[in-house]
Amino acid sequence: MIVEGAFATLGTQENVHGIKFRLGKGIPRMGWIANKLKLSCLNCGREYPWSFTLQCEPCNGALVDVDYNLDNVTIRSEGCHMERFFDLLPLLDRQSILDGQEGNTPCVHARELGKWLKLPKVYLKDETKNPTGTTKDRQGGLPVAVFRELGIHEFITSSTGNSSTAIARIVARFPDMRMHLFVGDEFLSRVNVVGAENLIVYWLKNGTFVDAHKAAAWFAKQSGITSARGIFFFGQREGLKTAFFEAVDQVPEPIDVYIQGVSSALGVYSTYKGATQYLGLGKIPKMPRLVCVQEETCNPMVRAWEDNAETIRPEHIIRYPRGLSKSTLRGDPTMSYPYIRRVVKATNGTMVTATQAEMREARKLLYELEGIDACYTSVMTIVAARKLAAQGWLSPDDVVLLNITGSDREGAPYPQPNFVVEKEGDGWRIEPFRDEVARGCLDRVYEVIRQTLRIPPEMKLDTEIRLLGGDLALDSVAQLELTLAIEKEFGCEVPPEDINAENFLTIGHLADYLRKRLCDALPA
Ligand SMILES: Cc1ncc(COP(=O)(O)O)c(C=O)c1O
Ligand SMILES: [Zn+2]
After folding, report:
1. Can you tell me which atom of ligand 1 is nearest the CA of 134?
2. For the segment 178-194, what is each residue's pLDDT rounded down to a tens digit?
3. Nearest bound ligand to the CA of residue 374
């Protein structure tokens, strides 16, 4: 069977799923490992033994991906997702399966929401029903199972909270493992596994998610400990497709379109792979069009897509990402974007931006109409569906699957960090956490704002609240008062030319301004 796949442009030969790639001369070929799977470079087709090989060095780090022998696949109707879809997951031994109670989530025909969207066939894959409330639970057990099968017991990772919570929950079951987790100041409270001694938390108290990612990569190099490597690790990618597999059985008609809020778009890539496999197995009649959605304040992929760029260029990168959708604050998706673009293009899909006003409205609506309390990342799918329906890109006949990827774990306990990490020269300083250094930059900003502007305790503060115009609409007196209080709290001088919309537009802007100042070690 030939699928005109995403990688057709790369070359001349097709792999087992009909996806074409360039097969260089003298490139090693190994055949199926255990008659089940293959690890091969997407660029040159070089095959690797069953190992933690994520990138092909001769191809400048091109992605090494997993393929499965479709002649040997049985999909089971019962069990946890690793049991049901074992033949399409990167594990050789059934003994490796870990049941974390994830998956087998409901998929609802959203009739009321569908009326509002003018899309009568809209379905919601309700991933909020997973154990930690997000689709990342599918990405929790699988990488741990793969690590264990490959004999890796210690690893480093960073996250905006959901995937690390999912992974840490499973790691906590294995005293012989250690997980080193790097988190930005705003994200510590989103890591909701407490009391696990083998979870070691490194907190960048003045750092963003991007800083945490960089610090984690630096630490991996220094320590020699395995880095989980996000999108590059097939163990992290592959589990996400099982939401689509389940939906194929749950939706009564073939799925025409799959929509997801994305950061690196691992879920979309994985869904593409899954759909390709299901096509090969004859379980679905066509490849769904894939749609990625990002928030207006952090939409590097959509920007690149709209420029028809094959790679992320400097002008697409969001240096200080912020937004309502906390799990997609990846301002620089350089590594994953080219792969995602190819799969989205191959399916005649698209990429869409959601505004914050639209997201707030969609979140309320989803709760009121369908009773699902989802996070802002999830509801971006509703915004995208509405836009695409209005443009005629989606028609009322289309069967549309929205991946409601998660909910917020509001108020859930989070661990005390083991270490505090701060920028130092070209590297990072890592020091044991002490109570007296316990406040992060954003928390300090919140507190100053609360006190200076006398904000009542019941009003929740968020990085997206506007200081100038909109929400708080500070007049010049309040602005001055706030500036003085910030100077006092941070022991620095804020020069008059710095008091502008670039630095003071929202609470997030102010926190970023101070993070930059803290990195440059303050006073003016
Ligand atoms: C709830 C939720 N939805 C969506 C995403 C985006 O996932 P990706 O871009 O990796 O597919 C994340 C990432 O952490 C998430 O936590
Ligand atoms: Zn290669």
Report:
1. 1
2. 999 999 999 999 999 99
3. 1
